[in-house]
Design goal:
The complex is a heterodimer of chains A (208) and B (636). Chain A is mostly helical and 208 residues long. Chain A contains 8 helices and 2 strands. Chain A has a two-stranded antiparallel ribbon. The chains are: A mainly alpha (208), B alpha+beta (636).
Amino acid sequence: MNASAVAQLVPCWSCKGPVASRALFCSVCGAVQGPGAIDHFTRLGLRPTFEIDQDELERQYFGFQRRLHPDRFAAKSAKERALSQSQATALNEAYETLKDPLKRSAYLLSLLDHPVDLTACGTINDPVLLMEQMEKREAIAEADTPDAITRLSAEADTEVLACQCHISAAFAAGDLDEAAHLTIRLKYLVKLADEARTRKTRMTRAMR
Amino acid sequence: MSDGLVLLQLHEPGETPAPHENEKGAAVGIDLGTTNSVVAIAFEGSVEVLRGADGKALIPSVVHYGDDGSVVVGASAREAILDTPDHVVSSIKRLMGRGIEDVKALAGTMPYAVEPNPEGGMVRLRVAGKVLTPVEISADILRAIKARAEEALLGRHVARAVVTVPAYFDDAARTATKDAARLAEIEVLRLVNEPTAAALAYGLENSVEGLYAVYDLGGGTFDISILKMEKGVFQVKATGGDAVLGGDDIDHAVAEHFLAERAGGLGEQTITAGEAKQALMTARVAKECLTSRADGEWMIEVDGKPSRHALDKAALEALAAPFVDRTIDICRAVVEDSGIAVADIQGVVLVGGSTRMPLVRRRVAEFFGRPPLSDINPDEVVAVGAALQAEALTAGSDTLLLDVTPLSLGIETMGGIVEKVIPRNTPIPVAMAQEFTTYQDGQTAMSIHVVQGEREMVSQNRSLARFVLRGIPPMAAGAGRIRVSFQVDADGLLTVSAREMTTGTEANVAVKPSYGLSEDEMADMLRDSLVNARADMDQRLLTEAVVEARRSVLAVRSALGVDGDLLSADERKAVDAAVAAVEAACAGSDRDAVNVAVEDLEQATKAFAERRMDRGIRQALAGVSVDRLDDALGGE
């Protein structure tokens, strides 16, 4: 505890006295500090879990932005303005990552040393998932009435929600392999749901 | 407006407003519009829209350039359109950060003589024998706005402002706006998006809370933003629009209708520039009249040849419908993009003079399923919001604006395909990076093309800048890894940098903006236009140095208050003397003296700082709670 507390002390850039490396402001001179290398959950004062209360996330995000946003530092020195911009940028990145279930799941897996690669574009290693996706994509492309596409779009949305529930359960059970597997599945389900929505929009617009 | 709600004046620790506010002059809010501009000022949360001697808030964004070199802005410039059309520029906002091909796309709606620019880049206009950039013309409008404000404030110096821009303005247009302010000797505190400024005005003046849409149809631009407003937070969820769609388009449609009638009636084939300009003015008058009347008749008379034109509401609406339909299509796309159901939107706020048209109100009410709000004058609401934000930035406030990027930012890759780096509707400020690899053996340079837009192909998007990264050490193809970083600040302005990762070589990057002005061009214009450019620059640097010096003194004082016992009496005396020297330098006007005194203070407190770090570590080791140090970490 003590040793780690010492390790976390750095000199404040402004008054040069000791300040915790994770502190937002120096407790002595009040100067804003840099964003520091901390994970997104810690940055927003949240526990690192997949289940997240969206209202709490937003409240925390607003609370930190209220103190750190560049608008608060418009009359300050150039260095303070730059630090506040870095802080606000880090908060935005944390908020954008944790807000989205897919990004949150992938991020949490990487924090838990169990990273999934979501950038591997287009390649599905799982033959079952591959078949399922191809069939559904075809169904969406072939839907030719507004009713049909509306039904498919609703189905796709339901599947996204169901997959999120399964991911939550996998994390709760500590089954990271399953969570990783489902996260890759979620990526394709989200893509499918987007495609269905786009097609639905086009079709209903064409009907008008 | 004068009895508006008083802003909460809460300050975070160490964030009291900077002293000597008055030295920097008044901070105003400026709505720099396509057709009209408005300026306002806030004091303790009450806003006053600054009016001219005629009592009017709107300053027509029209500039007349006289043969004698005179520059006139406003109503009298607009009147001169009929007599000397080639000496008058209007709707210049539509050309901010635009290239020649954009002007071609606007063909017929731009009554300007465009000067070819062999180097490409932003268009140049030929007016009254002069060649001017849209930046210079906007600067002339801003100078007139500044003069109006100083007059209304009884001679108080106005040097800082929040300037609003359409949310859908791209990077080139934003940069051009900031450059214009620089030319007009106005320090831009922040560029704020017009719908966001309007939301701020509604939120603070009318205590509106929840999910709201702001529909902003001005003279030349259309924006739609969806915001969440609660407890002083204004969070933009999604934004969209069209930077070249507005009331002007409706005027042109009506004018064309009149000109076709006139040509038919007089049996003429060609339309003169004078006829076109007068038809446009008549169209504008007719459109405004038909807001409250069912029909009317107008006359166009050029070269002694009169023609009469009857128009009723239904005919006007038929001409305007395609443009209004487009705004509704954009609303639909943005609502879908935000993932919010229309039913969850609690209200829609109307902004911009063009929302006075009954057709617009009807269509907006239809789409959102509720009558729109317009209790704050739609012509003035943006300037009111800008003034409130100007006060918030200079005097402190508890409100918070969280805005987003309106357009995706990306890089050209092989085959002319865009690789998106920052998607649209990402909260700003934002920083993101993408890695690219070299594709040839021994490649020592890589060309980087930055684009903005939603399409897949580079050619369909807007080019922002091209630059070449040089000095890559020769390696096998694919071994060189280039990391390109994008940074968008709170003004929505983009900075791009690139470096080679394998060897860590930081290569130099020279950005040439595709439609902006280069630093050299800006420097030339500043030299030409500012009599006291040099003095102005020096003053700014001095102010910045003094702000920094005062911060140092404050920091040392705070440290002495906590750990002063670490110094002997003699050491303390030396530190106090160094502090006094900085304060003395700040009272003068020599920037170098200020910087030297700050450096001396740093030297004089070096040993003190080391002892403070030692004490901190000793205390931590002794188990003293680090709560004091960990202050401000964790939840609110």
